[in-house]
Design a protein that fits this description.
Elements (H helix, E strand, L loop, with lengths): L2 H14 L3 E2 L4 E2 L6 E7 L2 E8 L7 H13 L6 E8 L2 H17 L11 E7 L6 H13 L4 E6 L7 H5 L6 E3 L2 E3 L1 E5 L2 E7 L7 H7 L7 H7 L8 E5 L6 H9 L4 E6 L3 H16 L3 E10 L1 E2 L5 E2 L6 H9 L3 E6 L2 H8 L4 H4 L4 H17 L3 H4 L2 H9 L3
Parallel strand pairs: 4-5, 6-12, 6-13, 7-11, 7-12, 13-14, 14-17
Antiparallel strand pairs: 1-2, 3-4, 8-9, 10-11, 15-16
Bound molecules: adenosine-5'-diphosphate.
């Protein structure tokens, strides 16, 4: 390629940085869709590769490319040659887009210093919400302000588990979370369960107002100061998990699984999806581990080994095993989380130990994280 063509290609590349693929949320150069351009007798030939041939945005992208390139000096005519990316190219692009989103998150109302713990699972019914609620209560009981975001938009259960029913209020165009005092700390709760009248009604709203609820919970809820935020994700690997990676890229993921080996395989899918989105996995919690009867005998009702196997496969710590304990279920049904109502029960102790591990060992402890001054003092202190 001659000198003239190369510099023309650079000019085209520059102007195409303003063409954003609305689906990917990045410009077509950054996304690797611009493949080159040349100028022949006033005719610009621009090559663009779409992620898929039938891309519904083909027309608008072609139009935008034409109008940008037509404004360049010496161009009388523009031809856009559209191609389709190979699966390998597409996978590289998607990886690049996820990395870009991770590095350039959109602004939310969650303070940047807040530790976000996202509780995830491969399938429903493994105790993800139970763990989220009790984890949030355990952190709050240490005197922290803890956000609790019920991101299980359609399958919300957290308000019931906390006995909260008040509607969320609005002020200054922002939604205000529901506040529950827990010892010297507090929980700031947001859930679609506090916006809609019933679960049936939430299903009716599905795909309409609620499809953007997760994003709105992060951008339109006045969270204010808080040290931790626990996010109860819906099961699986859908849009909300992707939005989490885009909006809260510093979230630390906790994967919940039952001891069954088949459950662990499903959970590993959720973990791998989190990793592909550049989210850090903090560890695995095995829930519904062996039931211990009053005489001390253990019954492995849901099998054994799933949690440590998953943690080993992922190369992350096993944060703890929460035994199968009917008290945990009863506590959830009566709106009184077990770590607060029966802190000495085996399941409550297991969850408290998990919270300890998270806030004292794995994440930067809050008391130290805001203390750069003290750290610098220590650094200059004579020995
Ligand atoms: P998920 O959020 O994964 O769908 P939930 O937290 O709603 O799961 O739990 C599903 C059911 O299992 C609930 O009735 C809950 O009370 C019960 N449960 C969760 N963990 C335990 C446990 N360790 N022992 C006994 N019951 C539990």
């Amino acid at each position: 390629m001659g000198q003239r063509e190369a510099s023309f290609g650079e000019k085209v590349k520059d102007v195409l940085r303003s063409v954003v693929d609305p689906e990917l949320g990045v410009d077509i150069v950054e996304a690797g869709m611009f493949k080159g351009a040349k100028l022949e007798d006033g005719k610009a030939i621009v090559s663009v590769a779409l992620t898929i041939a039938g891309c519904p945005l083909r027309g608008p992208i072609e139009q935008a490319v034409k109008s940008r390139v037509a404004s360049l000096e010496g161009v009388r005519e523009v031809e856009v040659v559209m191609a389709e990316m190979s699966p390998e190219e597409r996978s590289i692009v998607m990886d690049r887009v996820r990395k870009l989103r991770h590095d350039n998150p959109e602004a939310t109302e969650v303070p940047p210093s807040c530790h976000v713990i996202a509780v995830s699972s491969g399938k429903g019914g493994v105790g993800k919400s139970t763990l989220s609620v009790n984890l949030a209560c355990s952190l709050a009981s240490r005197g922290y302000t803890v956000g609790l975001l019920d991101a299980d938009i359609w399958g919300f259960s957290i308000p019931r588990m906390l006995g909260a029913s008040a509607r969320l209020g609005g002020k200054d165009g922002k939604i205000h979370p529901h506040i529950l005092e827990v010892g010297t700390g507090s929980i700031k709760l947001a859930s679609t369960g506090l916006l809609v009248e019933s679960e049936d009604r939430a299903l009716m709203w599905r795909g309409l107002v609620l499809s953007r609820a997760f994003e709105q919970f992060l951008k339109d809820v006045r969270w204010g100061a808080m040290e931790y935020m626990v996010v109860d994700l819906p099961p699986g690997t859908g849009d909300i998990q992707m939005a989490l990676a885009r909006l809260l890229p510093n979230a630390e993921v906790v994967v919940v699984t039952t001891p069954q080996l088949s459950a662990m395989k499903v959970a590993s899918r959720a973990a791998n999806m989190a990793r592909r989105s550049y989210l850090h996995i903090l560890g695995v919690v095995e829930n519904m581990s062996a039931f211990v009867c009053e005489h001390g005998a253990e019954y492995e009702i849901f099998g054994s080994g799933g949690g440590s196997r998953l943690a080993g496969d992922l190369g992350v710590p096993l944060l703890g095993k929460v035994p199968l304990d009917p008290a945990l279920m009863e506590a959830a049904d009566t709106g009184k989380p077990l770590v607060l109502s029966k802190p000495d029960s085996p399941a409550a102790k297991a969850i408290t130990a998990i919270a300890d591990k998270i806030c004292c060992e794995l994440l930067v402890p809050i008391d130290d994280s805001s203390c750069t001054a003290r750290v610098s003092q220590l650094a200059v202190k004579p020995v």
